[in-house]
Amino acid sequence: MIMPHYIRWKSVASKLFKLRYINVRKFSQERSLEENAEILRILLGCSHEESSDILSKNVPLQKLDHGVLERSIQMLKKFGIQPEEIKERPQVMFIHPATIEHHSMVLEEGGFQKISVTLLTSYFQIIKKRISLLKAHKLISAETDVLESFLSYLEPIPAHISPISHDAFKTDSTMFRNVYDAVLRHYLMWRLEIGPEELNRICRTHARIKHRSLRHLRRTLQILEEDLGFTKEKICKNGYLIHSHPDNVLNTLQNIESLGGMEIKSVLEKYPKIAMVSTDTLIKTNQYLKEFGIPDSAIQRCMHIFTLSSESVRQRLKNLKEVPEFEPLSSHPRILRLVHYQHKALTRLDYLQEQRVRCASLHLLSAPRAYFEKYTNIGEDRTRGLDIVHYLGDTLGISSSVLRKDLSHHNLWYHVPLLVVSTTLNFLLDKGFTKEEVGNNIQLLLYPRERVEQELEMLPKREEIVQAQELCSQKTGEVPAITPNIRLALCLYYIERVHHFSGDGIWSGREGETEPTNFEVTFAAPKQQRASQISVIEDRVKNRLSALERQ
Questions:
Q1: Could you report the per-residue pLDDT of 123-151, keeping only the tens digit for each?
Q2: The model scores a pTM over 0.85
Q3: Are residues 443 and 534 located together in one domain of the fold?
Q4: How many domains does the chain have?
Q5: Furthest-apart CA pair in the chain: how many Å?
Q6: Residue 366 lies in a domain
């Protein structure tokens, strides 16, 4: 059994997800179009016809998130760009607001006198021009020393650090970008106390550093060291921190006290990547987790959940209730792994169902690929029972040690899916049996709900029970009632009696499996034993079929 590189989603759950996604996406696009038109009318002073014309001629604006569009327009205005300029060149609104901010600030730091729509839409072409050409077009003042202009936005270089060489940039024949790169590299090397090789590695991995504002870099490093207490080594190890937005980090520290029961400063120290997430997203995600009843202990086991968008987290939490295999895991301490890796988990679940593998544990669905491929290559359809023990312990209030001891009396309990256990338990509780009564007959939960329901209905009609009740009635004059505990015990007895108390009753209801128990156990055996075991099973099945035909 080999895991394919691409798996088509065929299960009913996946088809429902895809269908719903298409409908939601269509509705979202229509709503986004109306909201974006309203934003253009409010922020740019457009008439209804103008906003419709802009959106119809610029399709990407129709799909752009209204919040991003609003921030982009506000950022353009912040750098002195008038609404009329934006309406003439609406393509500038395609640029992300953070990109507008950084590019504008870099141009300002290099001596550009005015930020325009043309400069932003042609940013990467502009910075490759020679300084002399930029001055000739009066984009930069003729008296401006671009190198000194960049350096003026940074803290003074310590005396023991060699200053950047002016000789290489003494003429205006140098490209604007080369001057910026030289200042950026010189600053980061002395500020972080690293060599050119280490800086190359960081910039290669985190390319966005190359177009960051020097003012933002300066403030970011100051906040990371002074407010969060990060060492230079830690900053270099987590190079993405260098291009985090200083205002966002400060807002997070000031407006969020804790996440998942941990102080925010400790969270950022232990999980620095969370510093890259906007403060609003962190607040919303934390709110959604609380609304869905996720305890702090579970959140602390998967703090990386905060690196997802808040809407993704909300939707994935809702999905937990809609996938039958996920629903019993909702109280699991590691449930957020199913949220964080939900797309991977759904794909794996579909693949396992196609291969008729039913024991899909939470760990298996969210584990690294190597572990999953090893599991599928071995071919065993079983778990370690962790999910079942936790689910029953949380629902019935029984300790894990007692549960394992009672369940282990059934030699095949590791081969029962959690969904079977939860479905049967919910059925019995709905029928009026108490948690204590179910706990006293815990092994009954290993059997399919249909089989348990069938046996409970047949129980009062069984000849042995009818005769026993009649005998008692003759002696005492009363028909003894069967207590719930005895009913469940008798139900388990009659289910297994058909299978000679071998435990094979758990396979009841598995469509298309002639000898499922032996087949499942065979998969769990070493590879060298499989051929001989399968041969024995096949002979046994043939003998049984022949006996049935003779009857």
A1: 999 999 999 999 999 999 999 999 999 99
A2: no
A3: no
A4: 2
A5: 118
A6: no
